[in-house]
């Protein structure tokens, strides 16, 4: 019996490899603004972050989301990410 391969992604905050479903995906489509992708299927460049406020704060301080997505990240997006973490 073959086991299904679990996709792993790296958290931009703590640099740990984790199951894709354990992380929050942020997407930058080819046109338009950066947004939080709740179902993980949106087209565009994706970046992942743990559902942990420490990782979010580290990523915000080091501006890794901006560098990774090559875009300006609004304060509103960081607030949405924080709300998403509170919902979990």
Q: Enumerate how many helices there are, as a single number.
A: 3
Q: What is the strand content?
A: 15-25%
Order of strands, widest sheet = 4-3-5
The rough form would be described as: globular
Radius of gyration: 13 Å
H-E string: EEEEEHHH
Q: What is the tally of beta strands? A: 5
Straight-line N-to-C gap: 33 Å
Q: Which percent range fits the helix content?
A: 25-40%
Would you tell me the overall average pLDDT? Answer: 92
Please state the oligomeric state of the protein chains shown.
single chain
Question: Low-confidence segments, ≥5 residues, pLDDT <50?
Answer: none
What is the total domain count?
Answer: 1
**CATH class membership:** Alpha Beta
CATH topology tier name: Hypothetical Cytosolic Protein, Chain: A
Classification by helices and strands: alpha+beta
Largest sheet: 3 strands, antiparallel
């Amino acid at each position: 019996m073959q086991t299904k391969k679990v996709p792993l992604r790296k958290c931009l905050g703590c640099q740990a490899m984790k199951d894709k479903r354990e992380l929050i995906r942020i997407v930058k489509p080819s046109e338009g603004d950066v947004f939080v992708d709740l179902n993980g299927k949106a087209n565009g460049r994706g970046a992942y972050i743990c559902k942990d406020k420490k990782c979010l704060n580290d990523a915000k301080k080091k501006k890794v989301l901006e560098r990774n997505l090559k875009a300006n990240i609004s304060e509103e997006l960081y607030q949405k990410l924080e709300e998403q973490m509170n919902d979990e």
